[in-house]
Amino acid sequence: MIAGAGAIGASIAYHLALRGARDVVLADRGEVAGGATSKAMGGVRQQFSTAPEVTLAKESIEAFEALGAPSFLQVGYLFLATTERGLAELESRRETQVALGVPVERVDRRRLASLAPGVRGDDVVGGVFCGKDGVADPPAVAREWARRAAEKGVTILERTDARTVEGEIRVIACAARSPEQAAPFGVDLPVRPLCRQLLETADVAGLPDALPMVIEAESGFHFRRRADRLVIAMTDPAPRWGFDEMVDESLLPDRLARLAARFPAAAGTRFERAWAGLYDMTPDAHPILGRVAERVYVACGFSGHGFMQSPAVGRAIAEEILDGRSTLDLSPFRLDRFAKGVSFAETVVL
Fold first, then answer.
1. CA torsion, points 331, 36, 261, 106, in degrees to nearest 10?
2. Which of 58, 76, 226, 286 has a beta carbon 3.0–4.6 Å from 131's, enabling a disulfide?
């Protein structure tokens, strides 16, 4: 029984069914892809600061490529630095990424102009770009995993509290709600909800067809194209912990100003839609994966990275359940790392 029918839970269900598992049930208190997945920005990147996160993302790219457009657009991720210190941090991360086989290239102003026409670059000292990264439609992808799972015999129960469903083996993949699902089994998951908001502009004329996800390295301000609009996100001035999914409208003028400064063609636009969702944060911004109690497994605490890592995580959890071990090294993501005092925080949390 899998609790949580977002991208992670649906991927686990699909990979279990793909491996021949029978009597698999996927349950959600809402509907498939109706929770955090429905509110995600949809970025798919391999440009993380720690090797385990890079590996999870790298192992997921092929699955997204197989989905193709319109579910996945491989337009790349472009990080821009406006200070030498910011550029040095990008370069340090690039070295880690390239060593793991991720094709991240250095970008100068001339290359920036060809990669992202219209993006301001006169204040940019350099950047990095990975053309295998991209943007996706999270609800569509999660529903596709669920559709494939159902096609292979998985039972999907929507509007059902997973705690009411019996199961010989239980997998908890409920994002920020995972701790309440784990508590009855005596498992304390250090996962907290963090409210994050996204903003969507009105139509912006002349958007480049293959505009990458553009990220300012120092501020974390970033935006992507979605149809003829831009979707914008940035960390709040102060973290908003809790389940209140509220949009802070006081920040909208600042975000519009930042957008106009980095992408002048959007000057004068307005926001037509705004929404908030929850990151399921852990103390080190790495997920918790694998067995946590007798016949209980978890896949949560992704800290905003779950959707982009869902293919690899789905396969890894299915392998661990059915084979007793995963072909991916899940040791960095075990729950007991916190009790052991192991810490290697992921720093690229957008």
1. 30
2. 76
What is the C-alpha to C-alpha distance for residues 292 and 43, in angstroms, rounded to an integer?
29
Nearest 10 degrees: Cα torsion 61, 309, 215, 210: 30
Q: What is the pLDDT of residue 212?
A: 98
DSSP per residue over 193-252, as a string? EEEEEEEEES--TT--TTPPEEEETTT--EEEEETTEEEEE---SS--BSS-----GGGH
Tokens coding 149:
């799972």
Q: Cβ(179)–Cβ(44) under 8 Å?
A: no
Q: Report the topology of domain 1-69+136-191+282-350.
A: FAD/NAD(P)-binding domain (3.50.50)
Structure tokens at 24: 């698999």
Q: Which pairing describes strands 134-136 and 72-73: parallel, antiparallel, or unpaired?
A: antiparallel
CA distances from 204 to 134, 229, 272, 329, 340 (A): 20, 6, 12, 44, 50
Residue ranges of the alpha helices (H) in the chain?
Answer: 7-18, 51-67, 84-99, 109-115, 138-151, 178-182, 252-262, 306-323
How far, in Å, are 49, 180, 280, 333 from residue 337 at the CA level?
19, 20, 17, 7
Other residues' Cβ atoms within 10 Å of the Cβ of residue 235: 13
* Residue 172, both tokens: 């908890």
* pLDDT digits 0-9 by tens, 213-261: 999 999 999 999 999 999 999 999 999 999 999 999 999 999 999 999 9
CATH fold for the domain made of 77-130+192-279: D-Amino Acid Oxidase; Chain A, domain 2 (3.30.9)
What are the residue boundaries of the structural domains of the chain, listed by start? 1-69+136-191+282-350, 77-130+192-279
Burial of 276 (0-12, 13-18, 19+ CB in 10 A): middle
Indicate the DSSP class of residue 81.
Answer: E
Look at the block and give the residue holding tokens 């959707």: 307
Question: In whole angstroms, what is the distance from residue 276 CA to residue 197 CA?
Answer: 4
